[in-house]
Every structure is written in structure tokens, then in C-alpha cells.
Amino acid sequence: MSERPNVRIVALLCRWCSYAGADLAGVSRMKYAANVLPIKVPCSARVDPQLVLKAFSEGADGVLLAGCHPGDCHYLKGNYKALRRFQLLKKFTSQMGIEDDRLRLEWISASEGSRYADVVNDMTTKVAKLGRLNWRREIAIEA
Amino acid sequence: MKRLVINPATRLEGHAKIAIIMDDKGEVQDALFQTVEFKGFESFCIGRNAEELPVITSRICGVCPWAHHMASVKATDALFSAPPPPTAQKVRELAYDAFMVHDHTAVFYALAAPDLLLDPDTPRAQRNILELVKRIGRDTGAKVLALRKAAADILTITGGRATHPIFGCPGGITRGLSQEDISAIRDRSRQLVELAELTNKVFQDGVASKKEFIDLFNTDAFVNRSYYASLVGKDGRISFLDGDVRVVKPDGSTYEEFKPASYMDHFEEASLPWTYMKFPYLKNVGWKGLQEGEDSGLYRVGPLARFNVAKGFTTPRAQEKFELFRETLGSPAHQTLAYQWARVIEILYAAERITELVDDPELGGKEIRSQLGKIGEGVGVVEAPRGLLVHHYRADERGVVTFVNLIVPSTHNNSGICLSVKKAAKHLIRGTEIPEPVFNRVEMLYRAYDPCLACGTHSLPGAMPLKFELYDSAGRLLGSESRGL
Amino acid sequence: MKPERTKPKLAIALGATCSGCDYSLLDLGAGLLDVTDQVEIVYWPTGIDSKLEDLQAVPDRGVDLILFDGAVVNEDNLEMARLCRKKAKMLAAFGSCGAYGGIPGLINSGSPKKILLEVYQGLPTRSDKAEALNFEGEDALPKMLGQAYSLDQVVDVDVYLPGCPPPLKLVAGLLTDVLAGKAIPKGTFYASNRAVCYECKRVKENKSIDAIHRYHEIQPDPTRCLLEQGIVCLGPATRGGCDAVCCTQNQPCRGCMGALPHSEDSGAEMMSALASIMELNNENKEADYTGIFDGLNDPLGTFYTFTLPKSILGRRKVDQS
Amino acid sequence: MKIGVYICHCGTNIAGVVDVAKVVEFAATLPNVAVARDYKYMCSEPGQNLIGEDIRHLGLDGVVVAACSPTMHEPTFQTALSRAGANPYMLQMASIREHVSWVTSDPVEATEKAKKLVEAAISRVSLQEPLEKRRIPVKQSVLVVGGGIAGIEAALKCADAGKKVYLVEKEPSIGGHMAMFDKTFPTLDCSQCILTPKMVEVVRNENIELLDYSEVREISVHVGDFKVSIVRKPRYVDSSKCTGCAVCSTKCPGKAPDEFNLGMSKRKAIYVPFPQAVPLKAVIDRESCLYFQKNICKVCVKFCSADAIDFEQKPEELELGVGAVILATGFKPFDARRVSEYGYGKLPNVITSLEFERMTSASGPTAGKIVLKDGREPESVAIVHCVGSRNVNYNVYCSKICCMQSLKHAHLLKEHLPGVAVYDFFIDMRAAGKGYEEFYKRVMGEGTIMVRGRPAYITDVPSKPEEKGKLVLVAEDTVLSTVMRYPVDMVVLSVGLEAGEDAKELAHTFTCSRTADGFFLERHPKLAPVSTPTAGVFIAGASQGPKDIPESVAQAGAAAAEALAMMGKGYFELEPYVARIDEDLCSGCGICLDLCAYNALERIPETGLTRVVEALCQGCGACVAACPSNALDLDGFKNNQIMAELEGILA
Question: What is the value of ipTM here, to two decimals?
């Protein structure tokens, strides 16, 4: 990326597929935006919507959820739950004024290193276009 | 000229203020009753599911939650084209009557009674329900509170709890009454009649039978010849939940009668820069400012309005009292202080009505919901204890609210209150001094309206602290005086 | 009777509230008198004609317990909250508004400016649409703070008494503890640490649902769990203490008792729970679940009716403009 | 809390891009950090010792290693911690190679990102808790479900290793489909001859308890100790007395179609399934028994010298406890009726491959003669491959054995009826296997006519005189690409293999899943082909997918080996990541109960609250995220730990 956007994207990666996919991107020396900050979770189903909301309220400009492709979940059916939670959560976050591109769910398998790199770059570009979210839960009141 | 410093702390409770504007000659030019509360329900209800509005809007006011709940439920009945089945209607009416007792008694004993029954020399600090209880004797006090609890019980049986009911839904109610419920209600209904009789006796002996009070009622400064608006049942008698809106002229003759749904063609609101309150007036007569008489669109709602609009009650004992009321004060009764008396009589009606309903076979029916129909628009109008209450919603095809308009009784009465205050002030104030009697009198006046501005202000209706401000015609503050702050 | 030890001082103050919390105290009936006998009420505008001076006159931390009823939406509320904090030995967030922002907190779903415009210009019965927009400027009127806050978002709070209104038995519980001079740990909730379901009498069988219904659309089986019948009930994510009164009335819990211990956001908890069991029997490669939540028109209003200001996001995005 | 932070250069892999010194310097400033070092290769012996030394001398209770991905070296450093006396789970790795230095070009950005990951790891590790791998003792006994060749093989292997084995077979005799075959390809040795000894060995081996004519009713899946309840159906013959003499059978008046011969012959109401049956005991079929139907007869009682007949027998229920389960429930042949255009069931001389097997078997209905329904010997026979297989309308998969089976049949035809004309219709000839291709050549050498094409339909309506009284196969010969009509006397449909009827229930009972085609799903197609997602449950034979005898036997051995290895170790070792529930917070709402893929959550009957069955929990955390009252949390991935990592990463 020529100009470096200062946005921060938290990536919640399932341990078996997406985190391994990210590893592969590394092993294959694929260059992608440094804006992504990975956190390893056992399964996309472990991700509590509160974690996503917390990420936004703590200063993330985008949140990426990634898990195994449907049917490939290491825990059989975890990613289906992740998908359903994502759809409901998304409905809520858009009501709260958080733009669509800031919250994203992707299926990234252990063999899809390049896909991980592409998703990160694409999301970084889109979020950068939206700029910093700098969420304010409370408008500060002077003491 | 005496200049009073305004203690900033007074603003803390400044939910209601009275501003009096003098002309250059030191004559009262205008008196403005000002509230500063603002919540914005009309706005944040938009986007919600329509069926949630009975839950949300009941929170407009913790003093009259049932009124808002019921108006909202009726509005959603209409919005979902789902007229409630007879059983639901009857349970609704029964609960609502219990609520009327619950609310009216609180108002009477907590506000009116201290003014009317305690010795005039009672220090203000002790002019409250707890003190009153001490005066009328702890036993009697406890009795009143216990009897009143019967009303709370009925509300709990029907709506889960007395404050913020879990009760109605579009097209009916969500829980029917079991035989146990009904017999529990029957027991309590007797206590309510007892409470009502007791209260009427207290009023009769303490006030209605006392000449000095009747004279006070009749003092010209406390009489406002205005229009009146309220619901009337098919038989032209007082009805809290159903019927059309009738407006009578100051002379008592009917000015217009219309379906609640068409309220917009008849009411309009002005808003003035110094208050969050709105000023409704009769659209077809027009806004002439705070003026009484037939040319001014100013109208009043509430117990007194109901008494002036309708031709009485359907229950015998209440009807008796009604006739006595008219005998004593004439018809229409423009005496603002008469609000209190009307209120006390309505307690009796509500209690009597419950004893009728509780024996109605349909009350325990199983059919408590009706089929939902086309989704669109709905207006729900009820007689809140303090008068006409309008909820008006529109929703999209999913039943998501796109528009909300609310007119609460104290808003309807806003102009009335201001008028009363102005007239009293004109009568009492000379120069920039605010003489002592003003407080008691003016306070008694607006307490008569029992303005519940929680829907406005957060005081037990009427017990709100008062603050006077004097302005000159240029709007410069001449002085101010606080009371109860 | 001989002069007993000085009674504990009690005050009840108000912010942005419907005052249902303290008004409902009158429903203690005769019980109210027992309480008032044992405490000295220094200030309670709803119940007695008390002067604010009375409260101000009390030395700092001179009131044993102040119940603050209401959210904080304007400068008046804020100053009152701060005054109470100053005067109270123990400050209680009284009711859902004080504890979580409550219904007035729904104002956080939009921008206050917009709301002023809507209420004062947008409505049909308004004749003079142009006027009355200089409220914020008018110093006679308290300034809106731009959003609603829970009490503990503006001052330090000692105990919480949630509920809309708080169940009387919980209020009684707090008063009893205070009268008994019991040490009450900071942050104590006078409510259950378990969810409403624990108190709900409805039968729970199988938590997997295929369709969402709105409570007015179907007549649910009065004996079975509402959620299992597809009605979105916040019971599982909401503090108990209310005896599941709403469920008993065949209506879903709307969460007025707020989030459970260790949880910041009952709305998110419930969204997660609901999405987890939705279409649980349809988990396979082909299922893409598009539109399964179309029936849920209003997540914000559904999951945050009483708790928006206290939730993790707290309010709608503040427009940078 | 004392934390040690170790930044690895990984030669130039990391240090080439990330300014390691800066990261160390930064880390040292963070709370709880007692020491921050960097080293060329942290994973090297000296690198690990560096950590060990600090743990011992500085008394570190948490370690952060910023190096390669944890998938690479987490075990290495965990061991390093244990060796130094620290708990291995007090380690948190920051992947600054795969996730930073290898993917970021700009050194400044890389260094910044590395710092964030390190800070996240530090704030996370300070909330981590010591954890122990879970050890669950394993019962020293095996349940084998299914008495076909795979089940028999697995049972024998485990028994030979000295483990107690329960072999459950739902039929009156073990042997499965293999017992019905005549010859086996490609070696053509007699199926019975090689199978019988193994069957006999089953009853002889005292480690094996044969539960014939029995079915698994239910099982409570607790890793290491499965509680199994089995129903034994009544034979109405006392096995302990019956000698298998079959006199009863000869005298019995009741008749019914013989299942073993696929209904091509009749058997008696009391019967021994087949001569080599194991156990060699009679069984009474209520439906055809005059005593049970009409309450008359009792001839068998009269003639049984052992007086073994017992009409009063009731089903009996057994409770077992086993450490491992091997599912070898086999397959079900494709029902040829479904391919209506081939007329099976309507056209008398269209038969299935399995019927043909019985026909050619000396002990079969025709005593080994290949004859038409009218008793004549066929002059021409057509064999059709892929019936029910490789066809979107039925099964898309290849049944694998049909090609060889068909070739075997072609050969047997030539052997039994020299001069018979044999047409073999195939799509592709799949003869991949030891000696298979050679067998194919041999059969072609025997003069079988190979037609590359799938018959469109089979009819007995002649279109020319020479087709009179014949079955006509209409097929496109895709080699000549012309549609031709082949008149023959007999058609053998080589039916494919399908998952057994009971596969669905079995999968449910044993909480293992199935692939789309209904066969049992292995835990990993390559690396765990006989394991299932449920630890301790293994699969073998055709229940996992179509396969021939040698494969089934090999797989049975593999399954046995897995089970034995597990029992040999004596315990399971499971990751310490388990869900835990705080019963003081649980409201019993039940949200979690049905969403666990492993049934690891159950309602406590007395309290109505939820309990976690540790042994079943796989640690995915689905329930933790779903639990609306935060009563559930996941060891190793606790809410506060992940939150801490989040706050660290965004700090």
C-alpha cells in the first residue's frame, strides 16, 4: 500500500483453519497490510458478539471473523453458529451506525494463505476509505 | 425594586416554573407556566415494533402508566386492525377502573387533602400525605393506605404489577382471568367501594359542606370560562375508555363531537420558546393566547371537563354525588378548584363499576385475543385521570413504527393552567412584590389540575415546587421568588 | 415512647424518570408507614414537600442512603446526581433508568438534536413549525447533554436496585439491610445473580427454534418456555428477582433487570444465545441462513429496550459531522 | 505476577525486518514484565535454556515467546516450561514471523505490529492459569458391532492381544455377506473355506463373548468407559442345549423364504441359517411357526433329543462397560428394483450379483447350478456394471467392488457353462488392486465380450425373430458409438454397495457422523481413517465406505490396533481446554444443552441446572459464547483472557 492507512482491524481467527491459513500466508511470504491484528480462538463459534462490540468500543476500525468453510469445522458445526450470530449482530451494528465494511465474516481454510492475504488487503482498503471509527460510547462530560 | 438572586440549585428541580410578565405600568401582562422536562418519546419510538409501544410509552409516566398503556394498546388495536373481543374489553375496563381509584386517591390524599383538610397553620414541611396520616390518626391513615392497596392488588392480578403493567397487546390482552383471580378481585372491589365512600365523606364533611370553601371555589379570580373536552359514552355519560370526543362551549352547549381518530382536525398545538411544553387549542376556534371565553380556542380537560361535558354516571351512588355537585356549583362548573371534588366522585364511580364488572360472566372468558388484520395507522384515546390522552401511531407493512404523536392531558391543560395562573396573578399581584397569598392560591389552583408532567414534572402530581419570575415587557427579569425549592 | 437512637437519613432524588420507581413505594401500603417511622426522610419530592435546601443543608455524606431514580439526560439531572453523590453515604441507582439508562436511554438510538427537531417541528398538530428551536440556547431551560447516561456513568454508585419498577421486595431488602446497619459491599445488586429463567415456572424442553414470532402474533402455550415457542424473551440474559412476572403474564422478558454478573451487555448475550439456537436443526453445508432474522425488525429496540446507555456500544455512532 | 518476554530473531527471518531490540526495549516497560530478552534462535537448546534459567532464578510465573507461529513451536516451549518446573500453559506465543516479518515489507510497520502482538500476549498471559492435560482411564474391553468379516477380524485381533471382546451380531449367525459368496476375486479361493475357520475361532477364543441375534439398544458415550445396553432376541431354542443337529428342521412343517439364499429357496420355521453357521444353533421364526401362529404342532419339541426348545424365551437385556467401540456394521446391497428400466423383479431372468453368488454356491438354492427360472441352462448371459452406482439418480460414488465382482462372475460362467456367451457391460473398467488387472486380462482371454457402455434398458419384447424369448439389452457401445441390441437368456446386475439401513441410528447412538452418502465419517480422511470424532469409537469395513474383503480385513486390523494402542496406554490424554460452568450463575435456561455437538452438556435432574461432562467436551467454546448468563467459560480461552488480549492488541 502506498499511503499507509492508520486503521486497525482485529482479526478473530479460528485455530484450525483460518489461523493456519494466516500461517501459510506467512510461510509463502505473501505481503499484506500490517493493519490486521490477529487473535487466535479455538473456533469461530467461540467468538462472543460482545468481543466484537468490545473491539469496536476499544478502538478497532474493523473486525474480521474467520473460520473453517461450512462442513469443514473441526468441531463439526461451530462455524454455522458463528454465521448465524454474525447475521444478527450485523443487523444490530448497522442500526448503531457501524458501516457494513467494518464487520466481516470469511471462511478461510488452512490451505488458503493467499485468500487470507487478499481478504486482509481488501478489507484494509475499504475500512481505510471509511476512516477511523474512534467509537465514543459516552460523550465526555466536563467534571 | 427588590431583586432576588436565583440560586442555581433551584434549577435542579426546575421542572416547572411560573413566569409572570408585567407591562410598564406594573400590570400583569402574561403568566406562563413553564416546564423544562424533555424526553423525546415521539422520536425514539420510531423504528420500534409497534406492539412494543404499550410497553415503552407506559414509561412516559410512572404515575399514570395505565393511562398511557391503555391509550397505546388502543392505538395498536387500530394499527393492527384488531378490535379486542368482549372479554378482553371488560378485563381492560375493570383494570382501568382500579387504576382510576389508585391514582385519584393518591392525588386526593397526597395533595388536595393537605390543602383542604389540614389546619391552615400547618407548616408546609408537614403538608404531606405522611403528615396527613398522622393527623387523621395513624389507624385511619393506615386504613386508607390499606384500602388503596386493594386497588394495587387488582392491578397486580390483572397486569402483573401496579406500576408499568404487563397487560394489553394489540387485539386484546395476553393473560385472561381465572376464577381464582376473579374472586380475589371481588373481595377487593368491596374494599374499594368502602374507600370511595370514606373519601367522599371526608370531602363532603371537610369541604363541600363548608361555606368558606364554596366561596373560595366561586372567587372570580379562580373561575375560568373555557371550552371543555372529554370522551362521552354512547349514552352521553362519563366513559374512561371508549366513546367519541365531545367539546362543549363555555355556556355548556355542545360545540363539536368527533371520532377520536380525527383529533387532528380539531386540536392544534402551539409551542413557545420558553418551554418544552406545547400549547394545544381548538383548531376551528383558533389560538388567541391565554384568553377565556367563546372566541378563544383554549379548552380544558380532566375530571371537571368530564363533569361539564357528560350528563353523569351509569352507577347509582356516583350519579347521586354528580347531581349534588351540579346543584352546588352549577353547570357547566367553571370553578377550577372543583376539579378536586369531581375527582373524588369519580373514585366512587370506578369502584362501583368494578363491582358490576366482577360479576359479568364474560369477564372470565377464554377468548382474549382477536385476529390481526391489515397494518397501518392507529389512534388511541382514553380519559386519563387528568383528562384526554391521545396516542397516535403509524407503521410500515412490517409493523415498524414510522410516526408517533402524543398529546398528554397536562399538555391539553397547559393553556388552562397558564390562564388560571395569569388570572389569579393579575388579581393578586401589584407591582413587583409577590405577596404571600399568591403562593397558596396559585398552588392550589394548579394542583387542582394535578398536572402530571412526568409526562412532565417529577413530583407527586401537583406537589411540584414553584418558582416565580417577574419579567418586564422587554423580557428583562425583574425578580423572582421560589416556593418549595 | 422514649427518644430512640437517631434514625437513618433517607433521601429519594430524581433524574430523567417517570418517577414510577418511587411512586410505586406508595404500594407498600401500610408497610410504607413502618418504613417512614424508622427513617428520617430528608428529601423526597415525590412523596413529601421537601425543600432542596434540606438536602443541601445536610453535611456531605450526611444522608445514609439516597435512592436516585432516573437517567441523566440534561444538566439538571447531572447536577442533581453530583449533589446526591456528595451528600450520600450510600448512593443507590434506583430503577432501570438509574442503573442502565432505562427507557429514556433509547434516546441514544438517535441524535438529540434530531429528536428535538422531530418533536417540535415534525408533528402534525404543530401550527408554528418554525419556532421554538433555541432551547439549547435558552438558559432558562436545562441543556441536553447530547445523550442519556446511567447514573454510574456520571458519578460513583454504591448499590444497584434495578427493575422497571424495582420489585418492592427488593426495595424492602435494601431498606432492611440499611436499617439493620448491615455492611453492604460496593457494587451490590439488589437482584438475583441468576437469570429470570431460574424463577420462571414455564417448562423448558428443547431449545432449538425454526421461526421467530412477535408476542402479539401467536397465543403461546401458557405452560411452555416462550423462547422455545419462538418468542424473543430476554429472560436468559437478564437478572432475576422479578419472579419472571412478564413471562407469567404471557409476555416476553424485555430485560429491565439488566445484565447478569460478569456481563457487560445483556443485549449481545441474548443475540448470541438466540442466534445459537435459531435453526439449530438445520446445520449443514447448504444452509446459508440468509434472512433468518428478517422477522427481527429492530434488534436495538428488542435487545436494548432498557439498557442501551450501559451496553458496550452505549449509543448510536456519533456523527463526525 | 512475573512475566518473562523472549523475542526470537529466527536468524534473519524475524530480525531482518523487525527491529528486535526496539521490541525488547518496549516489552521491558510493560506491567508485570520481569525480564525481556532476545536471542538468535529461541527454539534452540540454548534458547530454551535461557527461558529455563529465568524461570528458576527469577521465579517467573508467565512466559511470552515472540517467535514463529505457535502451530510450529508451542509444544517445544511448553516442554521448556515444564522442564523448568513451570506449568506449560503459562506460555503465550506471539507469532511475529508468520504474522509479521514474513508478511510485512516495511520495517517500521513490522516493528509496530510486533510490539502490539507482544503487548497482547503479555496482557493475556498475566490472566492465564496453570492447566493440566486431562487423563481419562480407559476400560480394558472392546465392543465390536457387526459380525461380518471386518467385525470378526477386529474381534480376533483384540482378543489375541488379551482384551475382553464383546462381538454383537444382529443375525442368528455371524459371517455377514462374505458367508454368502462363492468364490473371492481375484484368487478365486472359496469364500466359505477361508471364512469358516475365523468364524469358528470366534467361539473358541475365550476372550470373545459372542452376542449373536442381539442389537445395541443404547450407549452412554463417556470416553474410556462406554455404558452399553444390548438386547438379545429370543431364539426360542436354548443355545446351551442345542447341538445344531437340525433334526427339528427336517421335521418342521412351517416354511418361509430362506433369507440366506435371498428367498430363492425355502427354509423351515425352526432352522439353522446355513451349514457353517456360528453359532451352530437352531432358531425359531415366530412368523412361520405353527405353534406361535396357531398354537398347534410342537413337532420340534417332540424330536429334539436335547430338549432345547423353549417357547417361553423372552428378550434379555445386558449392560456392558467397554473402553473402545469398533463399528463394523457393513453394507446393504443396492435394491435393483429402483432401476425400473432394467426390469428386475418383473423379468424373471434378470437377477442380482448376490443372487448369482448363491446360485453358483454348492450349498446354494440350485446346488451350484446356473439355471434359468425354467431350469434350462442359459446360452448367453449379460453382466451389467455400476447398477445403482456412478449415477446421479441413485449413488454418485463408485461401489468399487462391482468391476472385479463382475469379472469374477464372467469367469464363473465360463467355468460352469463352457460355451456360454458372456457380455460384460461396463462404463470404465476399474481393476486397481493387487492381481486385479491380471485377472481382467485373464477373463478377457476366456472370451467374455466386453461392451463399453451402460445399457439404457432391458426388455423382453422382441423386435426381430432371433430376439424371441430373449432378454434384450439396448445399449450404446461407446467404442463403436452405435446403439445396439443384445439378446441374452440371463442378466446379472452387479449391484453397488450402500450404507446399512441402521447406519443412521447407529451414527446417532454412537455420536459419530456420516458422509452425505450415508457411510460413517472418519475423523480425518487421510490421517485418521478409522477414527471418528468421538474418541474411542472406531470404524472398519464397508460401513465406512465400499471396499472389498482384503481392504475390510486390513481396516479391521487398523481399527483393532487403534483400540489396542488406546487401551495399552491405559488412558486418554485430552487438551485441557474444557468448558466449566459456575452453578451459582446458571439459571437452567437450557440454551447450551442442544447446541453441543458432543452432548457434553446435560441437565442435572434434581436442580434443572446444567452440568459439563468433561470427558466429552472438546473445547470448541460454542456453548461459552452462547451462554447468556456467563455461567460457562472455557479453560485456556477464558472470556477475560481473550478480552485482555484484545485490549493489549488495541492498546
Answer: 0.89
